[in-house]
Amino acid sequence: MAKLECLVRSAAGAKMLELDARTDLVVLPDGSSSERSRPAPLRYTQLESLPDLCLMAADELIAESPEVYFAESGVTLVLDRSDLRETVLCPLVTSEKWDSLLELVNGKSMTPAEAVRFMRFDLPGTGAEAAAVLTALRNVDFKRTGEGRTVVQHGRESLGRSVEAVVQNIEAIPETFCVRAPIFTTLGAEGFEQTLAVGIYVDVSAEKIHFQLLPDEATNAMRRCLSQIETDLRVGLPEECPLFRGTFDASGD
User: Fold this and answer.
1) What are φ and ψ of residue 171, in 5° steps?
2) Plot region of 37 (φ>0 → left; ψ -120 to 50 → alpha; else → beta)
3) Rounded distance, CA 159 to CA 71, Å?
4) Residues 6 or more apart whose Cβ sits within 8 Å of residue 50
């Protein structure tokens, strides 16, 4: 629209001079002139804190009629819902512990030594049950005996009529254990820890420890965390600010 106005003035003999970044001077053919304010450029701001996003939404000089969208990827503040053009994004950054847990959605097999390293360095400080599992894994020892067996149990399975693999100290390893971990590290969402159940299977024939998240654990944990974020946003945002669960496409494509 501004470009069209400029073309119309030029055709009529008017001239437009830039006085500063926000003001133009329009000079008409009769010599008269007038100043015209130029609108501020659109803002696409990115924040690192959910409380800061709430503060921007409450500032009437910044947000005229705000609305907010939130999803796993982040929280988006639309500054003016009458035109939906200026937005503020606060990405939700996942924690390293959560990323490690997601590796277990489809299962992950490791040697006992690798399992100990995984528990120590990828899932440190994740609760008493996990600590007990780590202690048990340190004492795991695979060996083979000449006893014939035909049963399959946790930590003991038949490999033939005359050879059987046995895991020493298997009794201390539970079939499932719980892990506590934060999903996000973004300021304002970093305290929402979730508890997830992990299954353990001792693969005797391969001499491996298999970890796997139980069904729907990751999905349900994410939903619980987003519900906690929603509660905090409803408290921090202005009462009249709409809040939607979903993503906002700033490009409009």
Assistant:
1) -60, -25
2) beta
3) 49
4) 75, 90, 186, 187, 188, 189, 229, 232, 233, 236
Two structure tokens written together for 71: 């999803």
Angle at 95 between CA 249 and CA 180, to 5 degrees: 125
Most confident of the following: 35-39, 154-158, 232-236, 249-253: 232-236
> What's residue 163's pLDDT?
43
Mean pLDDT of 208-227: 96
Give 95-106 pLDDT, tens digit per residue. Answer: 999 999 999 999
* Domain map (residue ranges) of the chain: 2-37, 44-91+229-245, 96-141+173-215
Helix (H), strand (E) at residue 107? none
Positive or negative, the Cα torsion across 49, 51, 52, 58? positive
When pLDDT is cut at 50, 70 and 90, the band that residue 205 belongs to is confident
What is the greatest pairwise CA distance in the chain?
110
Give the global pTM: 0.74
